[in-house]
Every structure is written in structure tokens, then in C-alpha cells.
Amino acid sequence: MRKRLIALTALALLLVCALPAQAQDETPESSSVSAFNRGLVDAVEKGCIYIWAMSPGSSGFMQPAWIGSGVIFMAVPEEEAAYALTNHHVAQETSLLQVETWDRATYKAQMVATEPGIDCALIRIENIPRDRYEPCVLGNSDNVVIGETALAVGAPGSGDAVNSNRSDPFISFGLHQTTTMAVVSGRSTNPYLFVRTWAGWKGFLGRQVMTNCPWRFVTQTPISGGNSGGPLFNARGEIIGLNHAHFGGGPALSQHENYTIPVNFCKNFAFQILDTGRYELPWFGMDMIVPKYFDDYYGVAEFVERYANEEHLVVYSVRDDSPAGRAVQVDDPNAPTGLQPFDEILEFDGRTFADLTEFRLYVFTLDVGKTVPLTVKRGKREIDFEMEVGVKRGYDSEFSL
Q1: How far apart (Å, rounded) are the C-alpha atoms in residues 223 and 206?
Q2: How many Å separate Cα 200 from the centre of its chain?
Q3: What tens digit of pLDDT does each residue of 42-90 get?
Q4: What predicted TM-score, i.e. pTM, was given to this entire model?
Q5: Fold of 46-276
């Protein structure tokens, strides 16, 4: 018995003595994780920017109207200029922007183009020396795997959040010099939550946004105040999206409601503007509503009641001077042109669609100028039409296809 007690005591002492060594073995591992995170931030922060959207104040002087983040993706050293991306709701439609870089230097920037429908804006930073920034690499959002690392960077050079002056209303809203990291948790193809939530903010944007974006990333990576327009990076330091919104009243909710615009949509917008001076998005000019997502706030109660159980897509209205308004009847080219409200789409381009989200995603894949056949039910008649894929107009940023 005594020998067994001695043996157990010795074993216990051995385990206790081993604990510090085990803790020491874990330290380099945790340090290597921190070093990876810090190295990733160091590699990208010189391309991240803080943005002040300026507007004339009551005194006539320019003053900040909104704040957010952005990312430089292209250098133009021969002109001492650089191009950057941010959100439309950050830059809005202001004529003057002030940009702050990682080293707290400030530069004037100009709006090049903005697209509310994907909440993206292209800006040009002026008189910025090439050695004061490093453009970030635009990745491929189509290659993003659900569950992969996602790093959000915002306001990289605007002072430490702990020491910021919280008496400044802009500082109190926008956390400064922030990084958050987690994973991409999914994709959202449903635009209605965002459209419905923001449509009533008449004094803020004055219009709906995100109505032209086919889908968005949902991330576990928290998006803090002032992160809007900032980049979301993968583990290789490539931009996979622009952070643009989070919803929810607390951490538990916000974990699942952080939204990021896939970078490929931003690239498509930016390079079309830079190459051609215009941005083309497929469009027909049809307003179509899914009854379960809307109520009489939108003035469509009669429509909802009439078509709540409809199995086909239904046209609610047709925009003036739109491809849908110019659609030609195949069997009778001399008949009046155009689709009409309450037409039910039975077949579109040889396909059937019972879900508006699926139809919406398909429309975004079409080539501008293509002629599309479709069959509609109007009353008791079935009519075959042909219409051309047009280009969505800037003032039709609201939800229309």
C-alpha cells in the first residue's frame, strides 16, 4: 500500500512539473497565429483608406457628411493618382472626398462613378505619392469557399480607437483602425430584406440600394461602424469583397447578418467605367413583386391579394421607354407593342421560373443586345413576344428587371 502511495505521489509530481513545459510548448503556437494575423494586416493596410464625404455646410464651408472606408486597387504614378473602391452609401453623390491613408496623411479625392444598385463607388485620389501606399490585389469572389478565412479592415490610419476623441460624432460612430477576422459563412441571394429595410430611409439615401446585386456574402466577420466600403480579404491578402452592411441589435444577431459585396461585381463596374466610361447592366424594365415580402406600405395591396397564390411570375408594372415596353408580338408584329401590368410570364428564353430570385439571377447573366423570346398569359390569351436585352438606366436604380 505504501509503495503504491509513493508511486502515485511521484506520478502526480511528474504531471505537475510537466505542466509549465506544456504551457511553454503552446506559446509559440499561439504566437504564430498572432504573427500570421499581424503579417496579413501589415501586408494589406497600406492599400486601405479612410474616407470623409464632404458637403457644403450652413456656413458655406465644406464639412463631413458621411464617413467610411475604402481600398486602393490601382496606381497611376505618372499622374500622382490612384483609384479606389468604396460603397455608394459612403461616397454618396458628393463632389468632394477627403481620403486618409495608413500614415494619417490626407488627400483630396474625386468621385468617378457610383452605382447604387451594387452599393459601389469608384473614386480617384489626387496628388498622392506612389511611395505612400501599396495597391491591394483584387481577388476572384467566384473562388471563395464557404468557411474560409475572412479579414475585414477599416479606417487603417485614423488613430487608435481607445484614444479617439469620442466627443466627435463621427469618431463615436466610426471605430478607427479596426480589423476583424472570422470566416465567410454563406451566400444570400435574397435582396428583399435590404431593399425593404432601407427603402423607407428617404432622408438618408433617397432611393433603394443593392437592387442590382445578384447575391452577397454573409460573413461571421463582424462589420463595425465605419467599416462600410472597406475590403474583405482572404488568407492570401486578396480582396474578395467590399463590406457594406450589418443588421441586428446585438452580437448574437450580427454574427449572422454581416454582408459583403462580392469583389467581381465591383471589378466589373470599375473596369467598365475605366475602359468605356459607362456601366452596362442587363435590364428589361419590368417591376415584379413577390407578395409575401411586401405589404400595403408599397401601395400594392390589391396586387398582393390578387396574386398571392400565383404559380407564375407576374409583371406589376412596365417602365416607360423600356425594352419590356417595346416588346413585339411574334404572331402579329402590327399589334400594340409592350408587356402590360398583370401579364403572367409562362416561359422566358425557353425556361420557366416560379421563383423571382432565380429569375433575377438569370437576367443578370444575359448579354446586352440579345433578343429573348417569352410567352405571357394575358387574361385568357397566351401571347408570344420578343424583346431585346437593354441597359439599366441610372435613374432606374430601384428594384426593376
Answers
A1: 23
A2: 19
A3: 899 899 998 888 776 655 555 556 788 999 999 999 999 999 999 988 8
A4: 0.77
A5: Thrombin, subunit H (2.40.10)
